[in-house]
Amino acid sequence: EIVLTQSPGTLSLSPGERATLSCRASQSVSSSYFAWYQQKPGQAPRLLIYGASSRATGIPDRFSGSGSVTDFTLTISRLEPEDFAVYYCQHYGTSRWTFGQGTKVEIK
Amino acid sequence: QITLKESGPTLVKPTQTLTLTCTFSGFSLSTSEVGVGWIRQPPGKALEWLALVYWDDDKPYNPSLKSRLTITKDTSKNHVVLTMTNMDPVDTATYYCAHSPWSTREFDYWGQGTLVTVSS
Fold first, then answer.
1. Which residues contact A105 (CB under 8 A, 6 or more apart)?
2. Integer angstrom CA distances of residue B18 from A41, B9, B94, B117
3. Which positions 27-56 of A are in contact with B (Cβ < 8 Å)?
4. What DSSP state is assigned to residue B61?
5. Which pick of A41, A56, A102, B23 has the fewest CB atoms within 10 Å?
6. How many angstroms separate the CA atoms of A30 and B98, rounded?
7. Cα(B92)–Cα(A9) distance, rounded to whole angstroms?
8. Which residues of A78-103 are buried (b: 16+ CB within 10 A; e: fewer)?
């Protein structure tokens, strides 16, 4: 069973700053099936990145994904006020989907 | 335009069976290479994938919950139904259904979610 560990648990930053979120898999995974989501309070998750680095429809280019094997990163180049939220990584493999525990990006 | 919406009881008693329906539009589960999955989220906690049904009726389940789950599709009604038996207070969560393209396996469209509370 693959475990996804996200770090840090909470990231305190100011608008305009760069955010770097990490997701580490417990074993090698396919980047083709790796995704990132954003979730705001009271809302459903929203797909940001799929295939480790492809932006979903309508996602601003300040969001970018990278990584492979066991280490994946979501970068927000310049935080906008609407970007403060919880972010989840997710992987598909061997007929199961796994989510990380989430990183909260909060206003400093 | 793809939309999904969950419906079902908001309150169930311990040991009862939960039945949730996902009603979707904008795609077909009979001809497209897609799936519809269920994901839940206990209050203040992370997302947990439960089950998914593909257009070809393949049905992967979360191994830790497999014995309690059944997922079915009704392509004529554009419905996907999830049943979960022997409900417990720890199953209290918001339950989401979501669309997943077979080629890339992410969840690209989500329903709004429905909060299910398990309490006597």
1. A10, A11, A13, A19, A21, A76, A79, A83, A84, A85, A86, A87
2. 25, 8, 13, 10
3. 32-33, 35, 37, 44-47, 50-51, 56
4. B
5. A41
6. 21
7. 23
8. ebeeebbbbbbbbbbbeebbbbbbbb
Give one word for A16, left, alpha or beta, with left for phi > 0 and alpha for psi -120 to 50.
Answer: left
DSSP state, residue B16: P
pLDDT digits (tens, 9 = 90+) for A20-35: 999 999 999 999 999 9
Residue in B closest to A94 by C-alpha: B60
pLDDT beyond 80 at B32: no
Nearest to B83 by CA among B91, A65, B107, B75: B91
CB proximity B47 to A under 8 Å = yes
Closest Cβ opposite residue B106 in set A1, A35, A100: A35
Q: In 3D, which of B32, B5, B42, B99 has the Cα closest to residue A50?
A: B99
How wide is the angle at C-alpha A88 spanned by C-alphas B58 and A37, nearest 5°?
Answer: 75
What is the per-residue pLDDT across A43-83, written as a single tens digit (0 to 9) for each?
999 999 999 999 999 999 999 999 999 999 999 999 999 99
Backbone angles phi, psi at B90, to 5 degrees: -70, -10
Q: What does the alpha-carbon distance between residue B100 and residue B107 come to, in Å, rounded to a whole number?
A: 5
Residue with tokens 């309070």: A41
